[in-house]
Amino acid sequence: MTIGRGKTKIKVMDLRTVLTTDTVNLHLKGTTKEEIVDEMLDILVKAGKVTDKKSAYECVMDRERKMSTGMKHGIAIPHGKTDTVTDLVACIGISDNPVEFDSLDQEPCRIFIMTLSPINKTGPHLQFLAEVSLLFKSPEKRQEILNTQDKAEVIKILTE
Q1: Which residues of the chain, if any, have pLDDT below 50?
Q2: Are 125 and 79 in contact (CB under 8 A)?
Q3: Which of 31, 66, 108, 125 is the most exposed, fewest CB within 10 Å of its CB?
């Protein structure tokens, strides 16, 4: 999708092309950062989006060691760049219980959005992260996501 008039056009990522009900888990069970990352990668492996889970795990955890991807308001966006994917892939997980994630606001997280992108493609990765971080400025959207029991509804909330 492109928005704008005249010569200035901005390409906007459509999260619906990246997220499907196969890449949403409403009941993550992990209680640590490592368990959550592992569980999120299981979602991507099961959906056929990642073939080398071990390499993907190392990539995400390496990024976490540099700086935590725990944001604010109970959201973490673990991510990394890896040659185990050819295009940007993403998944969403909601934890039944808050998980310590070394967040900017020191609060535990319940909403996790993981993305992996190829090492040689920067644009989609940055665009996805920017798009997702904007979505969560709304306390109402965050609460709706935590309240829903429908995977399709999570995607709908994120893309409206």
Answers
A1: 1-12
A2: yes
A3: 66
